[in-house]
Amino acid sequence: MEVGIGVDADGAVAVHHASLPGSAPVALLRPGAPAAELRIAGRTAARIVKCLPL
């Protein structure tokens, strides 16, 4: 799958794919992001796994 979702100690969330440079996540959400934005990040990760357009 080569897709990862990371959460740092402050609560920032990153969605990343192995084909991208380490400094260029597909999505990056700030700490305390609303639930709707977090759901979009999850949907984005799922679309990458299924090879669907973003």
Key attributes of the depicted protein:
3 strands; alpha+beta; 54 residues; 3-stranded antiparallel β-sheet; 1 helix
How do the helices and strands follow one another from N- to C-terminus?
A: EEEH
- In percent terms, what proportion of residues is strand? 15-25%
**Number of strand segments:** 3
SS-derived structural category: alpha+beta
**Integer average pLDDT:** 93
Number of helices in the DSSP assignment:
1
Determine Rg (CA atoms, Å): 11 Å
Number of domains: 1
Which residues form runs of ≥5 with pLDDT under 50?
A: none
Can you tell me the overall shape?
globular
- Order of strands, widest sheet: 1-2-3
Biggest β-sheet strands, sense, barrel: 3 strands, antiparallel
Indicate the percent of residues in helices: 25-40%
